[in-house]
Amino acid sequence: MGLKNLIKGQLLSSISYRSSDPQELAAVYDRDGRRIMYESVLTVMPGQAAILVNEGQMTDIFMPGRYELTTNNMPVTTTLNQWKYGFHDTFIVDIIFVNTNEIIDIPWGTSEQVTVKDEVFGLVNVGANGKYSLSITDPKLFAENLMGVKNRYTVADLKSFVTPQIAMYFKEIVTEKQMFDSMEYYEFVREKLIEHPDVDGVFASS
After folding, report:
1. E strands of the chain, at which residues?
2. 3-class SS at 165?
3. In a 3-state reduction of DSSP, which class is residue 2?
């Protein structure tokens, strides 16, 4: 292998990612130590978003489409690196691919019951379980607040965070009302959980 081919083999000219796991919400693209060429082609598939990470800082976001990575479409990365017009060198950034498709039928349930006063039966212990669906509406906020330093984030990771939160919100909501009525509570609790401020912003949920 000649020197030219060796150097070319250490550079990325085309970047795309497709996960075989439908439960994967985000993953850091494995560059395998390679640098990215100026005008490398970044392909973002339908149902994805791609985030450039420059020295630990999330910069430019790309929605589905085909992009040649230049100073024109990487304004934040370009500014941080003080690249000038006409820059044609190789560079290093990490790329996070985020799944923006709707994920359906994610189960949840309360691990502890809450004691409430029922109009007919007096004091009763109640719990809840169900399923929810979601899609990531703000990829950058998701990556910053939930994914953090992980190289991969799945629905299982999300459940370990969200399920205790839902259980806590459920307890808050149930104890808001002094008397319990099962049919009335079903819709009341559902609406309150969806409206909760900590659920909004990152996801669209149902």
Report:
1. 11-15, 24-28, 35-44, 48-54, 57-62, 65-68, 94-99, 103-109, 114-118, 122-126, 129-136, 152-154, 203-205
2. helix
3. coil
Tens digit of each residue's pLDDT (9 = 90 or more) over 8-17? 457 888 999 9
Q: Which of 157, 17, 12 is nearest to 97 (CA)?
A: 17
pTM, 2 dp: 0.79
Q: How many angstroms separate the CA atoms of 62 and 133, rounded?
A: 24
**For 176, phi and psi rounded to 5 degrees?**
-70, -35
Distance CA 117, CA 123 (A): 4
What is the distance between the alpha carbons of residues 16 and 50, in angstroms, rounded to a whole number? 9
List pLDDT tens digits, range 179-199. Answer: 555 556 566 666 666 665 554
Beta-carbon-side half-sphere exposure of residue 115 (alpha carbons within 13 Å):
2
